[in-house]
Amino acid sequence: MSENFNIDDVSNLASIELSEDEKAKLQKDLQIILEHVEALKNVDIKDEKIDIHPLSKVLELRKDESKESLKHEDAMMNSPETKDGHFVVPPSIE
Amino acid sequence: MFQNKEMKPSELFEQVYETASYTESVLHAHLELFYDEGLKLSKESDRRYIKSESLGLLDGIPIAIKDNINIYGYKTTCSSKMLSNYVSPYDATVISSLKKAGIIFTGKTNLDEFAMGSSTENSAYGPTKNPWNPDYVPGGSSGGSAAVVSAGSAVASLGSDTGGSIRQPASFCGVVGFKPTYGTVSRYGLIAFASSLDQIGPITNTVDDTRIIFNEIQGYDSKDATSITPEYLKLDNKKVKVGILKEFMQEGVSEESQNEVNKVVSLLQEKGHEVTEISLPLTEMALSVYYLIAPAECSANLSRFDGVRFGIREAASTSYEMMNKTRSVGFGEEVKKRILLGTYALSAGYFDEYYGRALKVRSKIISDFKDAFEKVDFILSPTTPTPAFAFGEKTKNPLEMYLSDLCTIPANLAGLPAISIPTGLSKNALPLSVQIMGKPCSDYSVIDFAESIEEMVEFNYSANLLEENNES
Amino acid sequence: MNLKATIGMETHVELDTESKMFCSCEVIESEEPNISVCPTCLGLPGALPVPNKTAIEYIVMLSLGTNCNITNEGMFHRKNYFYPDLPKNYQISQFDFPVGINGSLEIVLDEELHSVEIERVHMEEDTGKSVHEGSGRIDSAISTLLDFNRSGIPLVEVVTKPVISTSKMAVAYIEELRQLVIELGISKGKLEKGNLRFDANISVADENSNELGTKVEIKNMNSLKSLEKAIDYEIMRQSKQVEKGESVIQETRHWDENKQVTISMRTKEGSADYRYFSDPDLPNMIIDQEFIKNSKKKIQNLPTDKRKTLKESGLSLSDSNYLDKGEKWLYDLYLSTVENTKDSKSTFNFLTGELQGQMRKAEIDKLPEWVDSEKLANLINLFETNEVSFTSAKDILAKLLGEDIDPKSYASEKNLIQSSDDEEIRALVTSVVKDNQDIVERLEDPDDKLVGFLVGQVMKSSEIKVNPGTVKEVLLKELFG
Ligand SMILES: [Zn+2]
User: pLDDT value at position C270?
Assistant: First the structure.
């Protein structure tokens, strides 16, 4: 890894603004962890099948029936800003 | 307890609350106490017992809930600044089950922010202290849930376990902690850290209490697609085969911790159980696998915390800036670290090298455990490499902190049931425990077997804090 | 250098289910915001997704309808990107293992059949709706209002291979796909409601080159007309650049309906790294033979089958395609009517031209119950066999739409039946020829325009109750032997 790890790219993808101090500290810690996980490269993993569920459960599908949703007031009760029943955010187009 | 009228539910509630009133100032284990609601509900429970209409064994029992499980109308903060003002508009499935059983909630307990950590030092609201010695950590991430049971400010509690977050703090606090088989307890309403690893479970004083609570919260839930319809294995526990995991009985695990296992082995052999050493070399990779899979899943699970629909919000001139700033201010350092690690592990060009590879090694670990359980019924190991450590001792290097989950992580990776029970005290008078892992869906057998060990070891100590305060 | 354009289409189809894709909220059409939302589709902490069986069934049906191979063990993936109307900031989608792969869709362009290769058919969930508030201009919004009623509505995305060469072909493809989802009963298929939303990937390259040019994605085309215009504009724009030797930038562009141009979008999305990974909340999905069989049972009449039936009735490919894409009742009416008429083309013309025209004029969208295929066939036969003139047939039809009449009895009653009696006509012809000797002398051949004049004279003298065809026949025989 390491030489390719660009904290600015990653924090941008993760949508988290970081101060310069934070960047330095996190970069150092992440380096330690990424070096540790290098050990995995020594494991032979050819032909290994992947199951999402640790017990290999197969997905069960839900019958298409509508049920009661959240009351509008409950849906909006945590909204930082509300207008006419909408959630309001600063403009999402630049 | 209430059936033979020794005590009324409201009396027990008052007693637990009184304990909380003097332990909380030292421990900071509860983030919020539900006194008024709890008292009201316990009085309703009183009336049910008088009319012989009790809802069952758990009716009127005061239980604490880890603050990453949603209870309708109450705050669920995950010990994060991000959710400091978040009030849940719905009940987690486990909460609905417990409400139906007549359980009284004492309140919400402290945790490492978003359940990421092993010491409860990562809480945005300050750490919880260990009831055995307030200079030491209670473990984590369910540190608050373990501390309240240990200190007696709740009869039992619910925690969540992603890499040891129930068992490790239970071990540090000298109580019983159980992580059920993945899928037996619904995750609906548990704020996800790593979805394929998270599991809710009880923290209690006795193994029997664990059995009763697990019985109430387990079962298929149509709201959780990973939930299973468990067909529990029933083993005859009279003569069992126990495997001692070689990899957890060597360097990296303290002698004190190893000695507890050896002590239990002798007791088991006395009772005629067969004990053998087994080796699962890949468990040495478990930590690496875990620190790729858990961050990868969490990086997406925690994307929804963006200041748009709930939680705190930072002012900004565009949505994107608002989200960036809110996430910067709302998340603590450890959470940011894991989100960034997971984001990197999933990013273009690195997926196969990191996340893809970790998934495949995990599959191999799962099949290794399957093979091992062909030979033995249970696997015995220390729960933690050391007893509780002091505050600040492991905050310098992330790996040192992560290593305290060394013995607990494999059960999460393989979805296995695992229980931690206290067996003795360290030279510093801190609790030590052993862990028992079983086959998938052998939860009740694991509990039964743990109960037999509980009887053999006769762990009769209790947290110092309680005694000191009682004397004063 | 001759240039060729290559187009690939990505179409999102909104499925017509009762509940959403991953939660039990009702799928509603409402102006009132945030009234059909729950912890799952609002992305509240702790909520989990459980997939809708009918939606999966619909996706399998569409995969079968586009001749795709069905992936038996499928997976759901998280597509990660931050956008305020995407509640979880990831969308549950499918990446490595879509439900359907490698299919094709037969389309009609003029009188030719084409096959459009389909790359994949996969599940997605819809986002919420953003309304930008401000001075009315998109670039000066002061805030964005969010409504999550739409969040989590099941979508299926159909992606073609880059095999479409013209805007007309792209339009024909969308029309065909639309008809398919309507016929399958899996979507309302209304473009104006956004039930079908399409993006086009367009590139331009030397026609002799085996390699494709740089791909540009065009979004925001809300109708078939804007699709056609946007593609034409974009091909022209890219061609000019290629001809000038400039390189085309790989980017996403918006179709601007007002300016009728495509505009570059500078958004985060363009360069996004979506970090797809399998959703740990959703175990592997098995689509077994039983499931496929049950989905197949629900498929009745595919547009290709309908078109085949129409073609077998004697219609041309484009006429078949027209009826195929039209309303169901017209298709049914045509098929039952043509059984009792002799000419499929004139039946088609009468129903799609005259009948539909009169209905439009009368502002009725449903045939009166007494107008059945039998009466219409009788009417068509009346003018086909020259028993009544086409003009009379039109009048009879107008009457028929107003009240329950029998076309033939009505024609007799109103004295509209044309005489085909040769004796009678011969007498009329002889008399007209005698009265118009000067014209007859100027006639050079049977194709002379003046023949028509003479026919007209005969018709006039009979007060338009004779069959003009017979008149002409008799007249020509009289004049040229
Ligand atoms: Zn919903």
Answer: 44
Query: CA of C165 to nearest chain B CA: how many angstroms apart?
Result: 32
pLDDT tens, residue by residue, C104-128: 999 999 889 999 999 999 999 999 9
Q: Tell me the CATH number of domain C422-480, given options 3.90.190.20, 3.40.50.1820, 1.10.10.410, 1.10.10.10.
A: 1.10.10.410
B66 catalytic residue (yes or no): yes
Contact (CB<8Å) C50/B304: no
Cα within 13 Å of Cα(C204), Cβ side? 23
CB B356 within 8 A of CB A44: no
C-alpha span between C373 and C394 (Å, rounded): 16
Map residue C121 onto helix, strand or coil: strand
Per-residue pLDDT, averaged over C287-316, amounts to 94
What domains sit in chain B, N to C, each tagged with a CATH number? 1-472 (3.90.1300.10)
SS3 for chain A is: CHHHCCHHHHHHHCCCCCCHHHHHHHHHHHHHHHHHHHHHHHCCCCCCCCCCCCCCCCCCCECCCCCCCCCHHHHHCCCCCEECCEEEECCCCC
Tell me the two tokens of residue C39: 């912890």
Report the distance separating Cα C407 and Cα C392, nearest Å: 10
pLDDT at C423: 75
Query: Could you tell me if C184 and C58 are in contact, meaning their C-beta atoms sit under 8 angstroms apart?
Result: yes
Model pTM above 0.80: yes
Candidate list B165, B186, B433, B442, residue with the active-site label: B165
Count Cα atoms within 13 angstroms, Cβ side, for C398. 10
Instruction: Among B225, B300, B319, select the one facing C80 at the smallest CB separation.
Output: B300
Q: Which residues contact B98 (CB under 8 A, 6 or more apart)?
A: B58, B63, B105, B158, B216, B217
Nearest chain C CA: its distance from A39 CA (Å): 22
Return the closest-CA partner of residue B177 out of B413, B384, B381, B422: B422
- Residue with token string 């092993």: B118
B interface test, pick of A8, A40, A44, A68 with most B CB neighbours within 10 Å: A40
- Of the candidates B173, B204, B260, B211, the one whose C-alpha atom is nearest the C-alpha of residue B457 is B260
Contact B412, B449 (CB under 8 A): no
Query: Chain B residues with CB-CB distance to C under 8 A?
Result: 68-70, 76, 78, 83, 86, 88-90, 92, 187-192, 194-196, 222-226, 296-297, 299-300, 303-306, 308-310, 319-320, 323, 343, 346-348, 351, 355
A46 compared with B245, residue with greater pLDDT: B245
Q: Using one digit for the tens of pLDDT, what is the confidence trace for B232-243?
A: 998 887 899 999
Residues 22-51 of A with CB under 8 A from C: 50-51
Residue spans in chain C of domains classed CATH 1.10.10.410: 422-480
Contact C278 A50 (CB under 8 A): yes
Q: How distant is the Cα of B114 from the closest Cα of chain A, in angstroms?
A: 16
Whole-angstrom distance, CA of residue B68 vs CA of residue B191:
5
* Total count of residues recorded for chain A: 94
Task: Enumerate the β-bridge partners of residue C254.
Answer: C219, C263
Cβ atoms of B147 and B129 closer than 8 Å: yes
* C284/A58 CB distance under 8 A: yes
Q: Read off the pLDDT of residues B273-311 as tens digits, 9 standing for 90 and up.
A: 999 999 999 999 999 999 999 999 999 999 999 999 999
Does the active-site annotation cover B303? no
Chain A residues whose beta carbon lies within 8 Å of the beta carbon of residue C34: 72, 75-76, 85-87
Cα–ligand 1 centroid distance for A85 (angstroms): 17
Contact flag B192-C46 (C-beta cutoff 8 Å): yes
Q: Which of B8, B66, B108, B129 is catalytic?
A: B66
Q: Quick one: tokens of C14?
A: 């909104």
**Which domains are assigned to chain A?**
2-42 (1.10.20)
